[in-house]
Each structure stands twice: as structure tokens, then as C-alpha cells.
Specification:
Layout: E1 3-10, E2 19-26, E3 29-35, E4 46-49, E5 54-57, E6 59-61, H1 69-72, H2 77-80, E7 84-89, H3 101-110, H4 112-115, H5 128-136, H6 138-141, E8 147-153, H7 154-161, H8 171-186, E9 191-195, H9 206-218, E10 222-226, H10 234-248, E11 251-254, H11 268-280, E12 285-289, E13 295-298, H12 312-320, H13 322-335, E14 350-354, H14 368-375, H15 379-389, E15 395-398, H16 403-410, E16 415-417, H17 431-446, H18 452-459, H19 461-466, E17 483-486, E18 509-512, E19 515-519, E20 522-523
Parallel strand pairs: 1-4, 1-5, 6-7, 7-8, 8-9, 9-10, 10-11, 11-12, 12-16
Antiparallel strand pairs: 1-2, 2-3, 5-17, 13-15, 14-15, 17-18, 18-19, 19-20
Helix pairs in contact: 7-8, 8-9, 9-10, 10-11, 11-16, 14-15, 17-18
Length: 540
């Protein structure tokens, strides 16, 4: 064998009690597991004494925004140091493939707050397959820091086939979108995402989404919607997605399934009852959450959808016009815009976390309300100025969550972990660097919300099953050696809202395909990550 991890507490991802064992690895796979007392110790070219550390499958981040970060940063310790060995990209209906030159320019501008403007990236792909190939041949053919799977972004698909118009797709445009989704699935995507509070994806009606989900289902993929409301209409929006995917015969994975905003305080049991009823009726549903209360998005996402029709340039034109800007303000502050989930915005809950324009750095770390007070002006005036001067590239933290909802949802049997980690900005959400150790440290060890074995199953085998990966997510003979060694007594997130880029503690070793990407608590130069492709096979 190449490596034996000796005397580990194996938390194998099944949710069953842990056990002591030696684990042998050869050619990137687990080749033997010998439990304590079952015979002589395993031997190999190299031995690592785990000394009772927990050994689990690598963690799978079911909701990541590392689409460009993996291409620009060979270190990527934000995820590698957490024990993440696989990220799912292409989230919230907006990413960089499939695209043409026009669409690529538009999507780069519209999600600069998530991933940067991409000026440092050679966008030498236009298809899903081309993007996945690029991941594999990145950094001179070495690959990427961690593995990555990809969801076809429905908003980008609509941008490519329809544009930014708020109208139903024509028959020809719908056919084009079906073709693009089918091609992306055949090229290796694992499913399709939507951002139904983001333009232009939100302009799609249910009938259009159902047709695209039928294509996804035919290729054994899943639909991952950021649905139409996380606020005033949250439960109705969840129900809409459940019914839509039942009609399409498609598996459903609910992205960052929180119950935020004051209107939803204490209402997590209603969501879970809705899911239980659907599961009992035969629906195929899973969800992900992050173990924090605030959300994170872009400031422009708070605006009403009508103000975004036509794309980023049109938004800026409308913001520059006094009359139109006042109409936008009325929707945001009084009516509750669809971009803010039907809830009137609370400017003292909107903290600016990152800007693209360095001249605006003084706003970072303050709420819009606080900055407005310092300037002696109304919050809308401040927000409007920042949007215009930052060319819509501003990211925010939105402090609208409820701890009791977070705890109840994470305990559900179809729950998985997803960081929703935006790595851009001077003060990003700490979930980008801390989601997985936060689960293990705070919610397992400190609060006892989940047992260690149950939590590891949430973060490993459940997401692997959703991704249809037959050889990942468990510590089992024949499976890939994507593994994490951590100390259950000390593992914890280092990142905080004040210092969000601090790495976790208590995770000394991380392996991908049997190669150390973190060793003795330090990132190695190894680039063991590759694109993880879906089967792409059409049923029938």
C-alpha cells in the first residue's frame, strides 16, 4: 500500500457509530480497512499515526461560489483547510457556461460581486464541457485545489437564448434552452440551478422551468433552485418548487434553505412538515444550509426585477434617472421588492462586505444605515451612490436570520451542508472559511444539535448520493481516498464576522485521491482536484 492511516476513529459517513481501525490506501483509493483487534496492523510505504483523530470522508460543499476562485488561486485554503474535497459550482442560476461572447460579458458584469470581474481570467471556454476541461488543465495541467462539480445555470441559459427581457420564451427560444441544458448535461453537469430572485432567470414562469427540468431529469440530474422568495412568500415558494419538480419528474435540491426575515421567525417546522409530506408522497428532495444566521448577496439583488430588465447597463441608467430611482426606492423601502423577497428593506440590517471600487472601501464593515448617518443623508441616497459608483459590484451581508430556524432545519434527514461562500470582498461572510468546522465544533461539540456521526453523514454521504457519485462520500473499501482527519475535541471555525478570513483549527490532514492537500495543518503545493462529471446519459 502507499499509505496506512493507523489507529483512526473512523466516522465513515453512514451515520452509524464510529470505530477504531487502520485504513490503507493504494493508487488513490481505500484498499483495506482493518478494525481494531481484527488481525495484524496494516503496513505500507508510509504510515500516518492518527492517534485517535476522527477520519471521515472529505466534506462536500453543496453550494459554492468558487467558479473563478479555483482558476485563479492554486492554494484555495478557504475550502481545502476546512476539509472540503468537492465543491458544487454554477449556483443560483448565474455562471460562465454555456455562453457566447455577449452573454459572457453580461454575466461577468452581473456577478462581479460574487466572483470578481474576471479580468485576471482567460475565458477560453464557451460550453459546459469546455469549462470542466479548463478546470482539469488549469495551472499548467496540474488541475485545481479541490474537486468541482457543475450545475447548468438557468439564468445564463435564458440570457443566451432570450436575453434580458421580462417575457415568456418563444417556442424556438424554449427549444434552444432545452438544447443547451441537454448539451450541458451530456458534457458532465450534474444538474441545473436557478436564481429566481435574480434576473434574468426570475423572468421564467413555472411552465418554462418545468420543461427544462424534464431535460435535467432525463439525464438523471437534479434541480437546485434559489427559489422565488425567502421572505414574505417563502413557504409558497418552497411549495412551488416541490410541485414543479414533481410535475417534471425531477429530483429537487433546495439551495440555502433558510427561513429568514421577521415574517418567518419560528416557522421552520412548517417548512419541514411540507418536505415530510412531499417525501412521504414519493418526492426526491434534499436541501443545504450554512450554520449561520445572516445571508450574503449583492446590493443590486435587493432591487425590483423590473429595474433590472435589459441587463446591468440598463440598471445603471435607471438608477441615474431621478424619477426612476425614486420609483425603485418606493418598491425597495415601502412595497417590498421581489429582489428583497417581498419584505421592505431594513437598511440597518444591510452591511456592506465588499466593493470593487477601492474608493468606496470606507463603506465596508458598516451598515448602509450607519454610513448614511455618518454622511448626514438618507440610507437610500447612500445605497444608490454606492451602486452607481461601484458599477453594481457591491456585496452585502443581510442580518435577517433566526437561530432556532437554523438549528431545526439542519436536523432534518435530507439536510446537507453548503457554504454559499462568496470569497470576494474585504469582509466576506465567515461561512466561506468556516462552514464545515462550524458544524463540527459549534453544533456538534458545543450545542449537541447533531451527533458527530450524524453530522458527518450530512456533510459527506448525503451530498454524494444526491450527486450520484458511486465511489465518494464514505470511508469504504474501493472508494476514492478523499479523506479528512480532524480532532473532535478542538475542531472549530477560526473565521468570524470581524475576522472572516481566519482558517479553522483542529483539521490537521486533508487528502484528495490519497494525496495530502493539507498536512500537519499546512496547505501543501499539491493540486489533486479535478472536474467531477455527471454521467450525462439520457434515460431510455
Amino acid at each position: 500500500m502507499d499509505l496506512v492511516i493507523r489507529d483512526a476513529r473512523v466516522v465513515d459517513g453512514t451515520g452509524t457509530p464510529s470505530y477504531r481501525a487502520d485504513v490503507g490506501i493504494t493508487d488513490g483509493r481505500i484498499t483495506e480497512i482493518r478494525r481494531e483487534g481484527d488481525g495484524p496492523r496494516l503496513t505500507a510505504a508510509r504510515t500516518l499515526d492518527a492517534d485517535g483523530l476522527a477520519l471521515s470522508p472529505g466534506f462536500i460543499d453543496m453550494h459554492a461560489h468558487s467558479d473563478l476562485a479555483l482558476l485563479r488561486d492554486p492554494d484555495h485554503s478557504a475550502k481545502a483547510a476546512q476539509g472540503v474535497t468537492l465543491e458544487v459550482l454554477g449556483q443560483d442560476g448565474l455562471s460562465y457556461a454555456p455562453a457566447d461572447d455577449r452573454t459572457l460579458a453580461e454575466v461577468r458584469r452581473s456577478i462581479a460581486g460574487w466572483n470578481g470581474d474576471g479580468s485576471d481570467i482567460d475565458f477560453d471556454w464557451r460550453t459546459v464541457g469546455g469549462y470542466l476541461d479548463r478546470l482539469d488543465r488549469n495551472f499548467g495541467g496540474q488541475g485545481i485545489a479541490v474537486n468541482a462539480a457543475y450545475l447548468i445555470p438557468q439564468g445564463t441559459v435564458r440570457m443566451l437564448a432570450v436575453g434580458w427581457d421580462d417575457r415568456p420564451a418563444t417556442d424556438a427560444e424554449l427549444d434552444r434552452m432545452r438544447e443547451l441544458v441537454a448539451q450541458g448535461m451530456a458534457e458532465g453537469a450534474v444538474g441545473m440551478s436557478s436564481g429566481l430572485t435574480y434576473t434574468p432567470g426570475m423572468y421564467a414562469k413555472d411552465a418554462e422551468l418545468t420543461e427544462l427540468c424534464r431535460v435535467v431529469a432525463a439525464h438523471d440530474g437534479y434541480y437546485c433552485p434559489h427559489h422565488r422568495s425567502y421572505g414574505a412568500g417563502a413557504l409558497q415558494a418552497y411549495e412551488e418548487m416541490v410541485q414543479l419538480t414533481r410535475d417534471a419528474g425531477c429530483a429537487l435540491h433546495l439551495a440555502h434553505a433558510t427561513m429568514n426575515f421577521g415574517v418567518n421567525k419560528g416557522r421552520a417546522p412548517e417548512l419541514l412538515a411540507l418536505l415530510d409530506d412531499a417525501l412521504a408522497a414519493g418526492a426526491d428532495i434534499s436541501l443545504d444550509t450554512y450554520p449561520y444566521t445572516p445571508g450574503c448577496t449583492t446590493l443590486v439583488a435587493m432591487l425590483p426585477s423590473w429595474s433590472s430588465e435589459g441587463g446591468p447597463g440598463s440598471i445603471l441608467t435607471r438608477l441615474a434617472d431621478e424619477g426612476t430611482a425614486q420609483r425603485i426606492r418606493h418598491h425597495v423601502e415601502v412595497l417590498g421588492s421581489d429582489g428583497c423577497h417581498g419584505v421592505p428593506i431594513e437598511w440597518d440590517a444591510i452591511e456592506i462586505s465588499g466593493v470593487g471600487n477601492p474608493a468606496l472601501s470606507g463603506y465596508v464593515g458598516r451598515t448602509v444605515a450607519e454610513s448614511a448617518r455618518l454622511r448626514g443623508e438618507e440610507p437610500w441616497v447612500t445605497a444608490r451612490r454606492v451602486l452607481i459608483e461601484d458599477e453594481l459590484g457591491t456585496t452585502i451581508l443581510q442580518h435577517v436570520g433566526h437561530e432556532e430556524n437554523v438549528r431545526q432545519i439542519m436536523g432534518h434527514r435530507v439536510h446537507t451542508g453548503g457554504s454559499d461562500g462568496i470569497l470576494q470582498g474585504d469582509k466576506p461572510h465567515p461561512r466561506a472559511y468556516g462552514t464545515f468546522p462550524q458544524y463540527l465544533g459549534r453544533y456538534v461539540r458545543e450545542l449537541g444539535i447533531l451527533s458527530l456521526e450524524e453530522c458527518v453523514a450530512h456533510l459527506t454521504s448525503r451530498p454524494a448520493a444526491r450527486l450520484r457519485l458511486p465511489d465518494r462520500g464514505l470511508v469504504r473499501e474501493g472508494y476514492r481516498a478523499d479523506l479528512v482527519l480532524f480532532d473532535p475535541a478542538t475542531v472549530a471555525a477560526g473565521s468570524t464576522f470581524e475576522e472572516p478570513r481566519v482558517l479553522p483549527v483542529g483539521i490537521p490532514h486533508v487528502l484528495i485521491d490519497g494525496r495530502f492537500v493539507v498536512e500537519d495543518g499546512k496547505r501543501t503545493p499539491t493540486l489533486a482536484g479535478r472536474a467531477v462529471r455527471g454521467t450525462g446519459r439520457a434515460r431510455g
